[in-house]
Amino acid sequence: MEQSGVPAGSGMTSDRTGAAGTPDSAKPGTGTTEPMAAARIVEIRTRIDEIDRTLIELWQERAELSREVGATRMASGGTRLVLSREQEILERFRSALGADGTQLALLLLRAGRGPL
Ligand SMILES: C=C(O[C@@H]1C=C(C(=O)O)C=C[C@H]1O)C(=O)O
């Protein structure tokens, strides 16, 4: 892991810095000098940024709702967690997204309850 937190070799780092005069100076930061490709990349990135904002909002809303369920249940004498429900959620994500879905679901569940 390098200092930025981005793993080396992940494809998320580049020698092409995007500064003027560097190889992608047609559209700084796109990683290409070809104007049509650069324009399309900028367009797609606009939508990616929207999706990321939505994902972050949904992530935060889900965590808050999950915390509320846990608090409500405990205040009424119930358990903090319901493992059968967590299993259903893990299976939902696994069947839709495979092994990455399982990892994603584990992170989602942790976000609502904190580390065990
Ligand atoms: C939110 C709940 O409480 C806990 C959190 C869950 C979640 O984040 O989805 C699922 C099961 C419970 O362990 C629930 O029971 O629905």
Question: What do you see in this structure?
Answer:
The structure is a single chain. The protein is mainly alpha-helical and 116 residues long. The protein has 2 domains: 32 residues, no CATH class; 79 residues, Chorismate mutase (Chorismate Mutase Domain, subunit A). The chain has 3 helices and no strands. It is elongated. 2% of the residues are buried. It binds the ligand C=C(O[C@@H]1C=C(C(=O)O)C=C[C@H]1O)C(=O)O.
What's this model, at a glance?
The chain is mainly alpha-helical.
Give me the secondary-structure category: mainly alpha
Give the total of beta strands. 0
Largest sheet: none
Q: What share of residues are in beta strands? A: under 5%
- The CATH topology name of the largest domain reads Chorismate Mutase Domain, subunit A
Provide the CATH architecture of the largest domain.
Up-down Bundle
Unreliable stretches (pLDDT < 50, length at least 5) are 1-21
Distance between the termini: 26 Å
Order of helices and strands: HHH
Q: Tell the overall outline.
A: elongated
Q: Kindly state the percentage of residues in helix.
A: 55-70%
CATH superfamily of the largest domain: Chorismate mutase
Bound molecules: the ligand C=C(O[C@@H]1C=C(C(=O)O)C=C[C@H]1O)C(=O)O
CATH class membership of the largest domain:
Mainly Alpha
Structural domain tally: 2
Compute the gyration radius: what is it? Answer: 21 Å
What is the helix tally? 3
Average pLDDT confidence is 84
Q: Key terms for this structure?
A:
116 residues, mainly alpha, Chorismate Mutase Domain, subunit A, 2 domains, 3 helices, 0% strand, binds ligand ISJ
